Q: What sequence folds into this?
């Protein structure tokens, strides 16, 4: 294909380095390295490099050299262009930077060029942008120095009072900067009022050497109201949290979401109360070069944003800087519902749920990846730890406490016949438990649910829903509703036992129609020599329900619409209880249940030889739950909209009277 040399204005990238080698020339840049063979290649590159300054088209360059050299010049230039070492700047927009300024900030301009077009113009706009620097102490001093060295014409500084701010030191920084760039200067602003501080700013940068959390929550909103971008670095303990960068049209609540997610996994964190703490001393590691490193990170984030390098990147990342080790890590987070504007509880979502496409365990596991982060995640981790993986595989998910209702982050576990299954079950349980402790009180004292039998929308007292002690989920809404109703019925075991007046039948599993999995579990219990007994509570609860006891304790009560499913669940929990005890790993033991009193433990075939409870319908269970009146209402646990989009089918079933 013929190339139009008049449509190419070549410029050699500023990070290109060329070295002579026996084969010809080795050329490299941040894009990588290449070997260009030919005895005269190195000399040719050295000769044409000064010409590749972007001021002339390739046609003009060829016209300026002897005719016999034109083909070689064009060929080598196009080769370098194809490999990325030369850039076509024909469409770059004009700028007014002087040659001296372009030379002074050549490295900055070259960095911009690596990512986007028109680097000189972008740097010029950055230089002239009104950036407000707010904060206190050495961090603000270092940030001012970083901004001056990055090339801003004016550093507008607004000192707060919690840490001493050394204006003389800033004057020294300015003097050093003006030796290279005489047009630079520092202007001081009054930090007393947020609206005056951010007025006219293109971007606001905030630093705090201690947890000034109330201010850190307030300033992004003020910047957004003033149509300014925002980013900050807040030191808490021996860590500094930098970012996220919030564009002028971005989400002003992003930092609040990040902080709320952080404290949901670390409730004892200084500033977890969302207040300023000027009385706390800065970290002993926040001094000397560490201060400069934190400031440089924030300055670099602002440089990338204002020059357009990070265009299109969502503000859902926070950088953690360890002040002791100087290590950095990036942490992703989802929006926190309490950082977002309040949304009334909407009954229309009930119809949307019933028509929503299903989400199976495999898909739910993939979606859970977006929720995992050790510091800012909905879940801190999904792991097998050092748990025994025989006879059952066991996985753990550490769940955050989003509004402080659970007393801190907590683990949930899943088990199964493979690590994939145990992880999928643990993830599903984690979504259920998270949704159960995530009420948004701003939705009001009454929530909307759906009558399980009629589908009619029904209002329910929020206090009857949260915390949701029998939350359940499913692959779709109808499955979640069934699971929630069964869980609600099964939760009545304690009350049912209190009404029992005769011993409960002890069952012989030889006559039971076990599922294939249930039969395997029974065989495994025999192999590990774990004795157990099964008692039938179905008559007390109105659906197949069984108690599983061992010589050590009552380990489980299991309910289901069918006896086989309930028996499978109980046998699995009995096997899990054995594994936990044998491995001395109580962390994943089944949750404690009421003990089945000795006087209620009947003999085998107690008056009903060979009788097993038959399957029941959802209507049967609802009838039992409402035998004293009322209706059963399923309420979706979706107060965290971001998490609910990932796992939409979580419900709590409650009995409503009136």
A:
């Amino acid at each position: 294909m013929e190339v139009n040399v008049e449509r190419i204005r070549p410029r050699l990238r500023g990070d290109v380095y060329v070295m002579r080698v026996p084969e010809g020339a080795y050329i490299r840049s941040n894009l990588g390295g290449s070997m260009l063979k030919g005895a005269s290649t190195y000399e040719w590159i050295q000769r044409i490099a000064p010409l590749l300054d972007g001021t002339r088209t390739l046609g003009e360059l060829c016209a300026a050299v002897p005719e016999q050299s034109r083909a070689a010049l064009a060929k080598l230039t196009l080769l370098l262009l194809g490999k990325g070492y030369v850039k076509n700047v024909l469409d770059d927009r004009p700028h007014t930077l002087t040659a001296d300024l372009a030379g002074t900030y050549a490295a900055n301009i070259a960095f911009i060029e690596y990512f986007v077009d028109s680097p000189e113009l972008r740097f010029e706009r950055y230089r002239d942008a009104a950036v407000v620097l707010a904060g206190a102490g050495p961090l603000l001093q270092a940030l001012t120095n970083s901004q001056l060295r990055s090339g801003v014409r004016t550093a507008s500084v607004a000192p707060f009072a919690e840490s001493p701010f050394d204006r003389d030191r800033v004057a020294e920084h300015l003097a050093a900067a003006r030796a290279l760039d005489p047009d630079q200067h520092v202007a001081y602003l009054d930090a007393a009022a947020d609206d005056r501080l951010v007025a006219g700013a293109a971007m606001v940068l905030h630093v705090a050497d201690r947890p000034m959390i109330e201010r850190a929550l307030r300033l992004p909103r003020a910047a957004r109201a003033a149509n300014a971008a925002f980013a900050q670095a807040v030191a808490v303990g021996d860590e500094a949290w930098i970012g996220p960068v919030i564009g002028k049209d971005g989400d002003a609540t992003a930092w609040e979401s990040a902080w709320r997610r952080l404290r949901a996994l670390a409730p004892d964190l200084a500033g977890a109360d969302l207040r300023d703490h000027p009385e706390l001393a800065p970290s002993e590691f926040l001094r000397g070069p560490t201060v400069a490193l934190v400031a440089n990170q924030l300055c670099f984030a602002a440089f990338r944003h204002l020059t357009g390098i990070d265009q299109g990147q969502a503000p859902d990342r926070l950088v953690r800087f360890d002040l002791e080790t100087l290590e950095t890590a990036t942490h992703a987070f989802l929006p926190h519902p309490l950082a977002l504007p309040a949304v009334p509880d909407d009954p229309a979502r009930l119809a949307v749920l019933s028509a929503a496409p299903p989400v199976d365990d495999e898909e739910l596991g993939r979606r859970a990846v977006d929720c995992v982060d050790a510091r800012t995640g909905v879940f801190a981790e999904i792991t097998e730890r050092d748990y025994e993986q025989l006879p059952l595989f066991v996985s753990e998910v550490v769940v955050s406490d989003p509004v402080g209702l659970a007393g801190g982050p907590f683990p949930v576990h899943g088990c199964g016949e493979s690590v994939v299954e145990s992880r999928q079950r643990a993830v599903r349980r984690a979504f259920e438990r998270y949704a159960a402790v995530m009420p948004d009180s701003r939705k009001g004292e009454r929530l909307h649910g759906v009558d399980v039998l009629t589908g009619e929308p029904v209002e329910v007292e929020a206090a009857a829903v949260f915390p949701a002690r029998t939350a359940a989920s499913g692959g779709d809404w109808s499955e979640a509703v069934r699971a929630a109703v069964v869980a609600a019925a099964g939760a009545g075991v304690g009350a049912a036992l209190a009404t029992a007046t005769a011993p409960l039948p002890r069952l012989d599993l030889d006559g039971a129609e076990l599922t294939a999995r249930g039969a395997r579990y029974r065989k495994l219990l025999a192999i590990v020599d774990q004795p157990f007994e099964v008692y039938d509570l179905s008559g007390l609860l109105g659906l197949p329900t069984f108690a599983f006891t061992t010589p050590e304790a009552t380990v489980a009560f299991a309910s289901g619409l069918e006896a086989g499913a309930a028996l499978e669940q109980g046998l699995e929990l009995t096997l899990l209880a054995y594994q936990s005890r044998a491995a001395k790993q109580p962390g994943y033991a089944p949750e404690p249940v009421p003990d089945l009193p000795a006087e209620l433990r009947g003999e085998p075939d107690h008056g009903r030889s060979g009788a097993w409870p038959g399957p029941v319908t959802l209507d049967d269970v609802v009838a039992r739950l409402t035998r004293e009146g009322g209706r059963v209402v399923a309420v979706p646990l979706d107060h965290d909209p971001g998490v609910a989009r990932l796992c939409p089918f979580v419900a709590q079933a409650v009995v409503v009277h009136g």
